[in-house]
Design goal:
Layout: H1 11-23, H2 30-43, E1 47-51, H3 54-64, E2 72-76, H4 82-89, E3 93-97, H5 108-117, E4 121-127, H6 136-145, E5 149-153, E6 161-162, E7 165-166, E8 173-177, E9 190-194, H7 197-206, E10 211-213, E11 216-217, H8 228-258, E12 264-265, E13 273-274, E14 280-284, H9 289-298, H10 315-318, H11 327-330, H12 332-337, E15 341-344, H13 352-363
Parallel strand pairs: 2-3, 2-4, 4-5, 5-8
Antiparallel strand pairs: 1-9, 6-7, 6-13, 8-9, 10-11, 12-14, 14-15
Helix pairs in contact: 1-8, 2-8, 3-4, 3-7
Bound molecules: pyridoxal-5'-phosphate.
Residues 53-55, 79-80, 82-83, 127, 153, 155-156, 177, 179, 190 line the site of pyridoxal-5'-phosphate.
């Protein structure tokens, strides 16, 4: 079976982890500091704080930005559920926007519509879905115009950019995940990127129980630290990230050129965006998705649906009072494409003949 994801762990990572294990310093130490520094240098701006996961990075970002209980944050209905959960854990209220049909990213029209209809919006939390930038010109303009905080969920977009500038550096803050299916991994882990150095300091306190100095605690914080073991993996992975992304982009370019099928819409890289293809997500038209998935699996190719449900229709959100009454009607595009999307393998572990075989199999569907 050709897998949908495959983390790339080399001898370098194994040696780095083994050095940490032998050192006796397992919890946050100099590897974490080094990883944070390297990541900030990679992005070229901002202040980085490593955390235990992408979800905790998002939550800490919102806490450090001062989101208060019940404050409304506009986010996309079509993402991994952690995006919205982080808002709720930070005390905020997610307001779900629809997506753009071509990119599947949050729709700027939908954001503007919500701002028009509702008062008390405090922030916009965008997700660069599947590795492609949202329209950061338009979204930054909306945030400035309405005096809203802007946060980027970059969990699928390490190294992706908008008009040459790395994602995670447009908003007041960004958050990354290093889960094994992402463009780089630390096993579990995350990174907060803050534009403001003082807020980065606050974030670093919050992930360590709100510590001020030894034995003195200024805030009621959390233990959301990254371990030295994970940081050591992260340092190695970050060095390879550009290579990882270029292979993903080569695989995607091959699919773009070769996949030809009247029932299939391929993803589009929009002008200005450098896509890093955390997922290569097709849309299968005419109610043929189930048949497509069965067919691919029969041919030994693992595919996966990201995402079969919108976040607000998940059981855990249906029973909350976050949802507006007519939210379903507002999510017209998301509610349509969730029946069409399917992601195919695009990762580094694919051999050349496997990429070719995936194309041949798809074109014969
Ligand atoms: C993976 C992911 C997260 C959560 O990251 P974890 O490290 O799994 O906590 C958040 N948002 C998006 C869009 C993701 O893909």
């Amino acid at each position: 079976m050709i897998k949908i994801a495959q983390p790339q762990i080399g001898q370098e990572e194994i040696d780095a982890v083994s050095a940490v294990l032998k050192s006796g310093q397992l919890a946050s130490g100099h590897n974490v500091l080094q990883f944070q520094k390297n990541f900030a240098e990679y992005l070229d701006q901002g202040f980085c704080i490593a955390t235990s996961s992408g979800t905790t990075a998002l939550e800490i970002t919102l806490r450090a930005l001062g989101i208060k209980k019940g404050e409304k944050i506009i986010t996309t209905a079509f993402s991994f559920i952690a995006t919205a959960n982080a808002i709720v854990h930070a005390g905020g209220t997610p307001i779900f926007a629809d997506v753009d049909e071509t990119t599947m990213n949050i729709s700027t029209d939908s954001i503007e519509q919500i701002i028009l209809e509702q008062s008390g919006i405090k922030a916009i939390l965008v997700v660069h879905l599947f590795g492609q930038s949202c329209d950061m010109d338009k979204i930054s303009e909306i945030a400035i115009k309405h005096n809203l905080l802007l946060i980027e969920d970059c969990a699928q977009a390490h190294g992706a950019s908008w008009k040459g500038r790395k994602l995670g550096t447009f908003g007041d803050a960004g958050a990354f995940s290093f889960y094994p299916t992402k463009n780089m991994t630390t096993a579990e882990g995350g990174m907060v990127v803050m534009k403001d150095e003082k807020l980065a300091k606050l974030a670093s306190q919050l992930i360590q129980h709100g510590i001020k100095e030894r034995n003195q605690f200024e805030y009621i914080g959390y233990n959301y630290r990254l371990s030295e073991i994970s940081a050591a993996i992260g340092i190695c992975q970050l060095k390879k990230l550009d290579h990882f992304n270029s292979v993903r982009r080569e695989n995607a370019a091959y699919y773009e050129e070769k996949i030809k099928h009247s029932d299939i819409i391929k993803p589009i890289e929009v002008p200005g965006a450098k896509h890093v293809y955390n997922q290569y997500t097709l849309r299968i038209l005419n109610d043929k998705r189930d048949a497509f998935i069965n067919y691919m699996n029969r041919n030994g190719i693992d595919v996966s649906i990201y995402y079969p449900y919108t976040i607000p229709e998940q059981l855990c959100y249906r029973s909350t009072d976050f949802l507006e009454k007519d939210y379903e009607n507002k999510l017209e595009v998301a509610n349509r494409i969730k029946h069409e999307v399917v992601s195919i393998p695009v990762h580094l572990g694919l051999m050349e003949d496997e990429v070719e075989r995936i194309v041949t199999v798809i074109n014969q569907f």
